[in-house]
Amino acid sequence: MATAGRPKGQPKSGGRKIGTPNKVSKAAREVVSEMIEQEATHFATAMREIYENDKPLFAALYIKMLPYVTPKLNSVDFRDKTDVDRTFEQQLADMAAENQD
Q1: What DSSP string runs through 6-63?
Q2: What backbone torsions phi and psi does residue 92 show, to the nearest 5 degrees?
Q3: CA-based diameter of the chain, in Å?
Q4: What are the distances in angstroms from CA 79 to CA 55, 74, 82, 83?
Q5: DSSP type of residue 76
Q6: Which residue in 14, 41, 94 sits closest to 5, CA to CA?
């Protein structure tokens, strides 16, 4: 049975170069963007109506839309690296000694 594609370990040849935009995706984004701009007032009116009639649905829709307009933040893991057994003065003396080297 023959395998499709290039043998393992062979470099890629042909196709789009890295970083070349996909023309179909770009065209689709432009169409959707234009549609959104044209329907913005209707969308705002519909959202106001949903807000007045069904606040839980409005809240759910609002939350689902947030990722499209706000950046996603990464969590930060803070670990205190100070030695609690040593006094503040001892830690300062060690830091001053490190800076003199």
Answers
A1: PPTTPPP-SSPPTTPPPHHHHHHHHHHHHHHHHHHHHHHHHHHHHHHH-HHHHHHHHH
A2: -65, -40
A3: 75
A4: 41, 16, 9, 12
A5: -
A6: 14
Instruction: Identify whether the C-beta of residue 50 lies closer than 8 Å to the C-beta of residue 61.
Output: yes
Length of the chain: 101
Q: Which helix (H) or strand (E) holds 64?
A: helix 55-65
| Angle, helix 55-65 to helix 23-53, in steps of 10 degrees | 160
Contact 62, 48 (CB under 8 A): no
When pLDDT is cut at 50, 70 and 90, the band that residue 24 belongs to is confident
Whether the per-residue pLDDT at 21 is higher than 80: the answer is: no
Alpha-carbon distance of 88 to 82, in angstroms, equals 9
Across the chain, mean pLDDT equals 83
Residues above pLDDT 90, as percent of the chain: 30
